[in-house]
Amino acid sequence: MIPRNVKDDFPILRQKMHGKSLIYLDSAATSQKPQGVIDALVRYYQEYNANVHRGIYHIAEEATRRYEASRGKVAGLINARRPEEIIFTRSTTEAINLVAYAWGRANMNEGDEILATEMEHHSNLVPWQMLAAERGAKLKFVPFDGQGLLDLDVYERLLNERTKLVALTHQSNVLGTINPVKDMTRKAHAVGAKVLVDGAQSAPHMPVNVQDLDVDFFALSAHKMCGPTGAGAIWARYEILDAMPPFHGGGEMIMLVQLDKSTYKEPPHKFEAGTPNIADCIVWSDAIDYLQDIGLDAIRAHEKQLTAYAISQLSEIPGIKILGPRDLERRGGVVSFHLDVAHPHDVAQVLDQEGIAVRAGHHCAQPLHRRLGISASTRASFYLYNNEDDVDALVRGLHVVHRMFSPRTAPVT
Ligand code: PMP
Questions:
Q1: Domains of the chain
Q2: Ligand 1 centroid vs 93 CA: distance in angstroms?
Q3: What is the pLDDT of residues 380-407, one digit of tens each?
Q4: Mean pLDDT, residues 209-219 taken together
Q5: Which of 208, 226, 240, 255 is 20 to 30 A from 12 via CA?
Q6: pLDDT at residue 92 is higher than 50
Q7: CA-based Rg of the chain, rounded to a whole angstrom?
Q8: Cβ-count burial of 43 within 10 angstroms (0-12 exposed, 13-18 middle, 19+ buried)?
Q9: Does residue 386 line the site of ligand 1, with CB under 6 A?
Q10: Is 226 one of the catalytic residues?
Q11: Helices (H), 328-387
């Protein structure tokens, strides 16, 4: 159970917006930060700001110790075998690009195939388009059905011995669909393909175990899980990282540099050239502590309950079409919808006047929306600090939208 007063941990949520309490329903874009995380960031800059892996003095050693401890914390969050399997990046986007550049350029050849899905965020699509164009590889896509579930028969038909990589989101940022990653990975491995999972929307909201899922790469961002922006990670099995060439070249990723050639450190340092984002990577661990204190199982259960409530209440709005599966076991706390009377941008603008923050647009998933035959949707996304009162406010706001935009009944003469 999530304590009801968890909202009090998030100072931003005490604000008024247009004279109303701020109701934040855009955690799929970025989550809010608890006071403890904000304080930890200030403490870093006030007490031990120094570069890592270099200085032989107390605060540099403290910064290095905490930076490496945070790597261990991220490893623990997703049950990686060892901290060295976590490479810090800027974000999920950079994590996926790291794989596309470093692993992709060494392993993808003419005629090879990359299998993605039609529900991918642009982050897990555009890097593969770029890689495919450069290496002469082919991109193929698994479609989703009317409920927003992947067509697994088509998936099995598309897998073949030329498939080198399956790139797959764990949880859709639009439909909320939670994909059957473990089962899909088993099938991908049977044809010798590697599996990359975009965990941007899953790791903040449910327990994740990369060893149990048995995937090869898993990408995540700190900012969607109560942590700072500018920190993310790619996880991969150590043997894969060890065999991969570096991503960026520069300081700190080298063993020996000569004018014409260099040798590189072992993972993870081989992939972390230059001064990393020390503060945000360290403070990520405070966010993980916060989430683990509450419990990722409890967060998942809370969001499931809230999603069920939201779907039942939103279904009462005339002319609404709610996207994604109805089965709560197969979806997370992202509820996107389409209203027949108003464009999503108008919906979001009216809701903003009511103090409610939602996302409107294509949510970085244009092909998904094209597949649905719409150009945009409105998305309400929940996190541990949301409750049924927030859903009620959203529903009241949507009734306001409906009254404003519904064609009027015939004027009385
Ligand atoms: N994948 C998914 C499913 C996402 O929702 C997002 C964030 N909207 C990303 C990738 C990209 O994450 P980031 O912006 O942190 O790189």
A1: 6-28+295-405 (3.90.1150.10), 48-292 (3.40.640.10)
A2: 6
A3: 999 999 999 999 999 999 999 999 998 7
A4: 98
A5: 208
A6: yes
A7: 22
A8: middle
A9: no
A10: no
A11: 344-353, 366-372
Q: Which of 131, 165, 364, 384 is catalytic?
A: 364
32 lines ligand 1 (CB under 6 A): no
Alpha carbon distances (Å) from 372 to 62, 93, 170, 322, 393: 51, 24, 20, 12, 27
Instruction: Give the residue, by CA position, lying nearest to ligand 1 atom 4.
Output: 200
Question: Which alpha helices (DSSP H) does 78-117 contain, by range?
Answer: 92-98, 104-107
| Inter-residue contact 398 to 347 (CB < 8 Å) | yes
Q: What percentage of the chain has pLDDT greater than the value 90?
A: 95
The rounded mean pLDDT for the chain is: 96
Cα dihedral sign, 202-207-208-213: negative
Q: Where do we find the tokens 């939670």?
A: 178
Instruction: Answer yes or no: are the C-beta atoms of 208 and 228 closer than 8 Å.
Output: no
User: Which single residue is written with the structure tokens 């993972």?
Assistant: 267
Q: Do 182 and 172 contact (CB within 8 A), yes or no?
A: no
Q: Is residue 336 lining ligand 1, measured as CB closer than 6 Å?
A: no
Query: Phi and psi for 201 in degrees, rounded to 5?
Result: -100, -5
Q: Which of 224, 336, 377 to mutate to test the pocket of ligand 1 (most atoms within 8 A of CB)?
A: 224
Q: 89 in ligand 1 pocket by Cβ < 6 Å?
A: no
Q: What is the pTM of this model?
A: 0.97
Return the half-sphere exposure (C-beta side, CA atoms, 13 A cut-off) of residue 360: 15
- Distance (Å) of CA 192 to CA 29, 50, 113: 34, 44, 12
> Residue 360: which of 330, 327, 337, 386 has the closest Cα?
337
Closest to 181 in 3D by CA, of 193, 163, 199: 199
